[in-house]
Amino acid sequence: MNHKNYINNQWVDAVEGKTFEVENPFTQEMIARVPYSSATDVDNAVVAAKNAWKSWKILGSLDMRDLLREVAVKSRINDHEIAKIISHESGKPLIECLDEIEWIASIFEYYSELGRDQRGRVVAPVTPKSMSVVVKEAYGVVGCIVPWNYPLLLMAWKVAPALAAGNTVVVKPSEITPLSIIRWLEVACDHLPKGILNMITGFGDVGASLVEHPDTRVIAFTGSVETGKKIAMMAASQLKKTSLELGGNDPIIICDDVDIQIAARGTAWGGLLNGGQVCTSLERVFVMETIANDFIEAVVEEAKKVRLGNPMDGQTDMGPLVSRMQLEKTEGKVSRAKLEGARLLCGGDRPSEFEKGYFYNPTVFDQITSEMEMMNVETFGPIIPIQKVKNLREAIELANNSQYGLGCSIYTNDLEKAMTAAHDIKAGSFWINDPLTDNEAAPFGGMKMSGGGRELGIEGLDEFRESKHILIDYKIREKDYWFPYDLDQGRKT
Prior knowledge:
Aldehyde Dehydrogenase, Chain A, domain 2; 22 strands; 22% strand
């Protein structure tokens, strides 16, 4: 792997020559060394983006559409190669990585058309023979700080609308998963105009340099609440726009009118997808008492069926967790849950059949109370805690009893119950009988401590545009409200 930064469509040597290692979480072996960008590297990338913005912001909409659409085409052409890299650096099963490539291609297609079409609106005039036009303009240089759990997808959620809105971009991937973005830039973005999309790599200090740079006007970030707070405070000193998706502790409500087996399978998948390392993972399960025992038994059976193994094997359901740190965090949360009185029903340990790899068995708890740690902080591991509730009202109250408000799901055949919960629960996304399904044409984002701003949909495009009002009078003419004032004679005509 080149020890370089991607600036102005070229691989440029890092100024200080420092690098860091990227590990395969399945083999626990180093697979690449990547440049550790300095503040000078960050400055070079931002300057390149700023210079490129002068021409990109005025590019014809059809040309912009075709360039972004070509990113989608090339992403699909190279899907297996890029997906394998995601799998190697993250431990995610290959089939999920292939899905990720298809998602990013779809997102670039969507914003190529939306950016071509959506440029503003005409407002009714306040006086005759005049017009008010609202124009949506790009901010300038956007800094995108991307997490490790979906490195390309959550990058695309930011980069595609930012470019479609007329901005230029500097991306800082996670230090854990930079390789897939590096290769994607090489094979899917080489046709883009010089300097509109750049990348620097490193740890949190590199991201801080990007946030604090005087020429970045928007910072789009996905990650933890604590890091989001730091970014918001740094950006506030320069009054920069921020778009922050800060994770959650998503609930799911299981009503007593459902097919228990289907609800159990959906809950197990929603809680264990990507090892539970999803911001919208089902991390708090509330089930009605009348069906609780049967439902809990079914979830345990589903968890036991999950096949752990080599993420490159097409039959693997769940690979290793992304890093030793993530494994240790998961082990700590399980240990504390036991001490707090939760009953372990399955999992709760590392599988013995693997000599290497950061594997952790799918884990299910019951005898849960809302005071327990795992019901109040983001889990980000393969853990499903199940709490019994008496009725829908109690479930809604418990679902809202959280600092987070990212997503919420419900299983029910009763439309009134579903819509009552949807209206009463504070969450940016609400899924009825279909947990975790996203739609690039609909907004995604959190309420409360889960962040501010929206990704996807036209709302995602608006995150990277600011409105300008242009008032036009058809003719130069004198106005009756100008000086001199004469209250006795009234206004001039």
